[in-house]
Fold these 3 entries.
Entry 1:
Amino acid sequence: MAVKKGFGMNKKGVFFTIISIILVSGLIFFYISGNRYTLTEKSRVVQTRILTMDSFIGDIEHDIERGLFISSMRSLIGMSEYLTENGSYFTNFSKSFNEIMLNGTIEGNQLNITKESHFGNWTDKVSSIGSKLGIEVSLQNLSIETFQDNPWNVKIRARGNLQLVDITQTASWDRDLNVTTNLDITEFEDPLYLVSSAGKFTNTIIRSNITDFVSGSNASNLIEHVNRSWYRASTLAPSFLMRYEGNLSASPFGIESIVHIENIQVIAPELYYSGKSTVDYVYFNAGNPANCEVNETKNVLAWFRLENAHLSEYEAHCS
């Protein structure tokens, strides 16, 4: 009997042991499941923040070229206005362009056209939008470079370091910024005319579509080109950017027009020189190389003169 009683107690012990195992297993299961749920939620939060930041970076990179284009265009217009008001060329175009692009100023003077639309202002707006999304945006070591690789366009390149940090420290990006945009110089005012005339007259850059100036005895194309003061590419002439500094030396990306001196005689007679070549950078320069009246146009444009270097360029001759 004692044996049976002991056996019965062992059966109860086994039963309670099984129940305990089941309960502990249940607790472990719920604990693991709960942690798994928490980790999943955290993973989703992290993924959402990463996607948000990645989308924001995409928006910045998509929009930055547009911002660079608009601010560059306004900056060049502002620089032309500054030339008109001050009557002198820029000593260092690149330095002045950087200043107006990043601060909207030239030599510390605020310009109305760039007051709210310079490139530095655009980067501030990006930072403000980022803050609303819980993203700290920092653009460090920003610099602007301008150059030409053809006569009719100016390239503007923005370089810097772009850093984005999520305020929850979930994710961050650190990458180099290198964006380039192109500006067509068509319909910009020629700085050479603005400074040379002290703002009394200007010439808007219009690219000539004429390639053959004279055909036999027909000089109608040449006459139209001269009368309209259109521009043509010339490796003898200064480039558009060089004109902002008054640098009249030759450039592979040079452009030139013919100064319509009959108009000048009316507007600014003190700038009328009847015995000079009418090629713009020659006419507005201090020197006066040997030149002559063009045979093909002398009955219509008696004032149109060229120096020897340009006669072949315009398919012209002198007596």
Note: Residues 191-311 form one domain.
Entry 2:
Amino acid sequence: METEDYLLEMSESLPLSVLLIARNEANYIERALKTVQFADEVIVVDGGSSDQTREIAAELGATVLEREWTGFRDQRNFAMEQAKHDWIFFVDADEAVTPELESWLRKFFQGDYTHVVTNGFKIRRVEYFLGKEIKGACWNPSFQDRLLRRAKAKFVGEIHEYPEVAGGLVRAPRIASLLHNPKVTVESFLEKMNRYTTVEAWDRYSLGERTNLVHLFVTFFSTWAKNYFYYKGYKDGAHGFVIATMEAVSRTVRHIKLWQIQRMKSEEREDLLLYPEEALRAGALIHRGLESKGTK
């Protein structure tokens, strides 16, 4: 077959299924969906939104599927099962696909992509804090596992779910990037941290991990130094200093919550503990309010 037969004009849809998992993402999802109109199929798996997430997605042409929220891993695996194309592309509701990424995807599908050796690609994501693009700390470089051959991938893990891909993944060119939410603030970071560290602590407890006071003391300083010096948070000036501090707080809080679980379990006072689903549900309304301004 001639190369010209593979060429896809900018107006043509790509043989690709774009997948989004969402719950109460009305402040973000319009921005995300408007940047993936090049895909032949767009599926939004809604985990019980109480806002206008489903309505906005449907108005923009997405197939909206409702599924009770059972965790990030389960939602993503369910979404993959619904896709009709061999290649799938995950986009988070607070992300946007750049024109450069769309261009790279078009070039990818111009060739005989059915014989591509790899089964998945990592896509660079541009991170922001207080509207400033972040160059260092553990936020950059940020490569996300997003373009996958559906039959060769399965998500594992809970809060930081990731796909197990046969043969591993390779990095797409840096210029082919996603843009993350540019309106991340101290308040929104800490609110999200509070929810996610609860889930992370339970996840690690279930895997047999334990902590102690010495570990708690060392964690803050080692995490701060790693982010500021090793990951070059200093390149971002005051923003980098604050990010390194917040990441150190986040890691320390996770260990404090793990310690709390250990103590309450040993004292048979589990009624005082907040479980993962409760933590995620409790923070949803606060999270939407903190990042609702200027997100579109």
Note: DSSP finds nine helices and 13 strands in the chain.
Entry 3:
Amino acid sequence: MRAHPPAYRGLHGMSQTCAQAAKLAIVLVTGLSGAGKNSILRAFEDLGFETMDNPPLATLEDLAARAVTNLAIGVDARSRGFAAESVLATLHRLRARTNLAPSLVFATAAEEVLLRRYSETRRRHPLAQTGTVADGIALERDLTAPLARAADLLVDTSSLKLPSLRTLIEDQFGAGAPGIGVTLMSFAYPGGLPQEADLVFDARFLKNPHYDPGLKPLCGLDEKIGKFIEEDPDFTAYYARILGMVEFLLPRFVQEGKKYATICIGCTGGQHRSVYMIEKLKHQLSQNGWRVSVIHREAAKFSHPPTPQSHYAKE
């Protein structure tokens, strides 16, 4: 029996979803300078949210209480009176208000990526007026660490292109998107584990198309790659176990109040096996009613722009 999100579980689940939909979304957007907070705020603005950036911390609760539409507020170490504990305390009080649906989004990126971005823009880090950019990054990471740990949605923009970032925000916060938001991500192990991962599965033991000259330039969105991977005698059992685990856990994530879940599958290059399995998982979860978005972290490395095939519909 397939697991379904609460919105598909009879009248009681539907009434809960309707009640949630009536609440105003209050999103606190924070994170490291240079990690994309402003881009996230602009994505919220495109969704019809009212947006504010860096108001005095003492005014956050009043701004949220007076909101008449969905509201996204940028908060970072530059905000007057900034302290991570104060932000979390404000978020806790907002969550006690029955007419609001508050959440915390944290943007992060690897240090080398932040250093490169500051070098390219030639801007000074806001916390490094007298020191180096690296010093400012280290200080800000330390100051905001409690917020990163408490975030409802942690967004690592190290290899995330702007269109993908916008799509992620649209999928998680767009109209008609109640319940838990599920992000599926493929990645390459040499690039490190995704910081935002809730679940990680390893596909490196499966047959690797990389060693077939005819398949190497393709990616997991190509039908030939899917057929090759599914010929591995271990694939069917392994994929069934992943799907079973995910379908077992998602309703329990919902029960505990989790708003977002990031499920990752990795392989050696992040181009073939992990991409195919993520797409297959997306197809199944979407069919079962879950709200799913996909990120292929290594997509920029693909040698050609792949075209998704329709072979999943034939299953």
Note: Residues 145 and 297 are 24 Å apart (CA to CA).
